[in-house]
Amino acid sequence: MRATVVVPVLKSRSRGGQSESASTRTPESRLEEATGLALAIDLDVVNGQVVPVNDPRPATLLGTGKIEEIKALLNERDSGLVIVDHPLTPVQQRNLEKEWNAKVIDRTGLILEIFGRRASTKEGTLQVDLAHLNYQKGRLVRSWTHLERQRGGGGFMGGPGETQIEADRRMLQDRIIKLERELEQVVRTRQLHRAKRRKVPHPIVALVGYTNAGKSTLFNRITGAGVLAEDMLFATLDPTLRRMKLPHGRTVILSDTVGFISDLPTHLVAAFRATLEEVLEADLILHVRDMSDADNQAQSSDVMRILNDLGIDEAEADKRLIEVWNKIDRLEPEVHDAMVQKSSGASNVVAVSAVSGEGVDTLMDEISRRLSGVMTETTIRLPVDKLALLPWLYDHAIVDAREDNEDGSITLELRLSETEAAELERRIGIGPKPAKEDWER
Asked: Which domain-ending residue is among 115, 148, 169?
């Protein structure tokens, strides 16, 4: 379908009375992003324009002159769809469709359309359907009154019956309740999976970032997984978890989550909360940023705002978050070198290229360092009846040296965190207590 993208730039009044932009993002970046969203669902974007709006109209948002101008453009380009990169009220959407004689969708509707196409798992489909129905419920305007039943019940004196719009709302609400129940079951299943993972307590590392920042490409680079990774907004939607081993042998779980975007609808965040809770459960969060995007600072602010809405405040983020400056391979040599040097001097930043692999080893070392905590050096001698602990040791400790003894026991030189050292003591203490000479610290 041939589509036209319209980006309204609303002006707000500052205290001094001077007009200033209501958004921190540049109009050009908003137009580029909105066009990218349209292309993500294979629309043929024939025109895109930024429209300054000094006085938003309650009925149409835009002024009459601009509406006429866009109408002429639609006829000239034979465009049957208009994407307005701004929230529209149901009345505004209906009035614009009448004025332009074309289908009109706002930013929320466009994001929901993309999510609907990307969802592949049962959970993802339920989340999108629920968000879409909540959005659609507010779009029901009084356009069905000609179908109103004039009498209710079987008597002659009955009052007006149920209008078609009321019936539609009731049907939508019934469907919403059904989806919420189904989603509750999915949430319980996900909680059971988390509980099982806690019994084998591998640390969880979550990838977050603005959509198209390169999370899935980095995920594939680190884990060797075949997750879809394309230069496209919201190329992946459903969360993916994989086990991986860090350079020193420790096993962690890496989680790739849905990409964030500015002005993400509130009910959409609520619908995807079960998915985003993977971030809340994470021991370490990798905030992937596209440093080749001129608007990356504003994108970073949007991501941090959503993390804060999820319950991760700035103080907690400082302890649990590593900024991954991605796509440095796209930068000019001078900018590339300056960015790598700047990241090397920061305690929570690593510059990488998920495509070429540059900096990924440094990132893996930093993940190991952040997850290790205070390391304890330990030498243990496992007797034959405790060799079942060997897989656990290789998963949770760094094995620096191993010696297989003639009596079948094994001597290991280990490095492990204080928590895991305490867990090792507990595990060795299960069953018959080993002799003192069998293990030493």
From this structure: 115
| Residue numbers belonging to the annotated binding site for GTP | 209-216, 234-238, 256-259, 326-329
Helices (H) and strands (E) in the chain, counts: 15, 14
Residue ranges of the chain with per-residue pLDDT less than 50: 13-22, 142-161, 228-229, 231, 430-441
pTM: 0.72
What is the b/e burial string over 377-404, where b = at least 16 CB atoms within 10 angstroms of the residue's CB?
Answer: ebebbbbeebeebeeebbbbbbeeeeee
Could you tell me which residues are annotated as the binding site for Mg(2+)? 216, 236
Numbered residues of the known binding site: 209-216, 234-238, 256-259, 326-329
Closest to 249 in 3D by CA, of 358, 384, 380, 402:
402
Collapsing DSSP to helix, strand or coil, 111 comes out as: helix
Residue finishing a domain among 56, 89, 115 = 115
- What pLDDT sits at residue 100? 95
Look at residue 125 in the predicted model and tell me its pLDDT: 79
* Number of separate domains in the chain: 3
Identify any residues that bridge with 289 across adjacent strands, giving them in sequence order: 325
